[in-house]
């Protein structure tokens, strides 16, 4: 699932570089808006691991806004991209879920 300001263009420009198939896209009403409301609506209370390089925007009330949705925020440095350590972190987190 893409939750990026690239929106559908992520499937054209980012996915192929990462070797990903086309993925569904969470659309945002405002490209510069904090993503959580749209991501939360899509997750519908299910646990989610969220990889992003910009958790600093609009995050002040994140803990309150997530309404108990089990969420792992996994920061990805845009200079180095996704690494095995990110997936190891997600696996370890998922094993702890009830």
Short description:
This protein is α+β, with helices and mostly antiparallel strands and 98 residues long. The chain has helices at 9-13, 15-18, 36-43, 62-65, 84-95, and strands spanning 48-52, 71-75. The protein contains 5 helices and 2 strands, in the order αααβαβα.
N-to-C series of helices and strands: HHHEHEH
Fraction of residues in helix? 25-40%
Q: Average pLDDT, to the nearest integer?
A: 84
Give the biggest sheet: 2 strands, parallel
> Largest beta sheet: what is the strand line-up?
1-2
Give the SSE layout.
Elements: H1 9-13, H2 15-18, H3 36-43, E1 48-52, H4 62-65, E2 71-75, H5 84-95
Parallel strand pairs: 1-2
What can you see in these coordinates?
The protein has 98 residues and is of the alpha+beta class. The protein has one domain (9-95). 34% of the residues lie in helices and 10% in strands. The chain has five helices and two strands. It has a two-stranded parallel sheet. The protein starts with 8 loop residues before the first helix and ends with a helix.
